Sequence to fold (341 residues):
Amino acid sequence: MKEQLEAIRAKALEAVALTQAGSELEAVRVQYLGKKGELTAVLKQMGKLSPEERPVMGQLANEVRAELEKAIEAQAAVLAEKALEAKLEAETVDVTIPGKRPQVGHKHPMYTALDEFKDIFINMGFEVFDGPEVEQEEYNFTKLNTPDDHPAREWSDTFYLTEDSSILLRTQTSPMQIRAMEEHGVPIRMISPGRVYRKDEVDATHSPMFHQIEGLVVDKGVTMADLKGTLNAVIREIYGPETKTRFRPHHFPFTEPSCEVDIQCHKCGGKGCPTCKGEGWIEVLGAGMVHPKVLRGCGIDPDEYSGFAFGFGLERMAMGRFKISDLRLIFENDIRFLEQF
Ligand code: DAH
Fold:
């Protein structure tokens, strides 16, 4: 039995020393010291020994057990230390690796165009007004001298929000002319950019929501010459100093006389091309002298004061400024498109 115990001691100590992981060590412990382990099996044979041998072997067996337990404990500590080192090694932070650059957005190209536009007007002494997109019919149409049977008032053209058609989504920024005159009074020089809504199907040049910039100047002695001079100056700031303009007679209910303003096509120089749809000219805004009825409706005496108003389409301006061919690109927010600006 002594030889058996010594053999177990030698084998077990070697096995413990060879273990590489906690699980292996536990397997070794079970193999020798477990209930069905090799040392336990030897101890079960003690009964067969003579009374003289029994205590001697008992003592030896206890020694072997104690020694194994100690060795296992020591090896467990070694393995734990190793495991920690491996973990730290694997998790080291390399402070020299370049960081991940956070994705930072930037201004939408349409707002870039708007800010340039605002700067031009602010430098000319204009104030910027903000107004409601949910508007009263009275401001969107009636106070702007729009007749009851005007096609824009149709339910098929305008988003009404009440059955009695008194509240709607504004179809133009022109109601801001009225609000500005009522709230600010005259003299006034203002622009007012914002969203407008119409029942249009989406295509390359239409959207049920788009942006306009309204402008209004009212003072004593304002004439059509001021309108032309101001708009020519602004257009040349936006489209370049060589830009040719054309003022075409038109009709708007709230201005008299009224006009539309075109710029000569910068692509073909007026010969006609796909960009200007063969016209040679591209329409950029509507304008006119504020109708005396409109002034009077805002409590302003048209014999004392006169003024001009204008309305730009912001998308069209941004599309011209950045050579964007399809209106839908402006609203889709596709990052591959936006990243180009
Ligand atoms: N509100 C007009 C439109 O949506 C544009 C316009 C034309 C605005 C003439 C004006 C103006 O201020 O004087 O078509």
User: Anything to note?
Assistant: The mean pLDDT is 93. Residues 172, 174, 214, 252, 255, 286-288, 309-311 surround 3,4-dihydroxyphenylalanine (CB under 6 Å).
